[in-house]
Design goal:
Blueprint (H helix, E strand, L loop, with lengths): L1 H28 L11 H54 L4 H4 L7 E5 L8 E5 L2
Antiparallel strand pairs: 1-2
Keywords: Membrane, Signal, Transmembrane, Transmembrane helix
Protein name: Protein apnoia
Organism: Drosophila navojoa
Length: about 130
């Protein structure tokens, strides 16, 4: 089995060597063709002329997509703010108000007494805190 593999590898190497020699001889015979029609000098010139308008179009599209993204994010932000306000309003209406009863009775104003020397009666001023 090992001998058969060695023979197969040797034959494969011999075929590749013959193919390489034949290709070099054929390439030396076709030396008059210097550039191809598809990817030659004219193709590179066409690509260079088409590169600037293509880059311009890509830049315009990128700018429009960026503006659309900014406007969409702004709209999303306004929508989220309105949603938070609506949820807060619904919660304030739905939950019972227990804390408001403690603040319903306001304390009486504290009187401040000023005494003047030229009057006999003290002056009572009510000040709310």
């Amino acid at each position: 089995m090992a001998a058969a593999q060695k023979i197969a590898i040797t034959l494969l190497g011999l075929c590749l060597l013959c193919d390489l020699v034949l290709c070099q001889q054929q390439a030396s015979n076709d030396s008059d063709v210097t550039e191809s029609r598809t990817f030659g000098h004219h193709f590179l010139r066409r690509i260079s002329f088409a590169l600037v308008p293509g880059a311009f179009v890509v830049g315009v599209i990128t700018t429009l997509l960026a503006a659309l993204t900014v406007v969409s994010i702004k709209g999303l932000g306004v929508g989220v703010i309105l949603l938070v306000l609506a949820i807060g309003q619904m919660l304030s209406r739905a939950l019972p108000v227990q804390a408001a009863a403690a603040y319903a009775a306001a304390p009486a104003p504290v009187p401040v007494v000023y005494s003047h020397s030229h009057t006999q009666q003290p002056v009572w001023l009510e000040k709310e805190w």
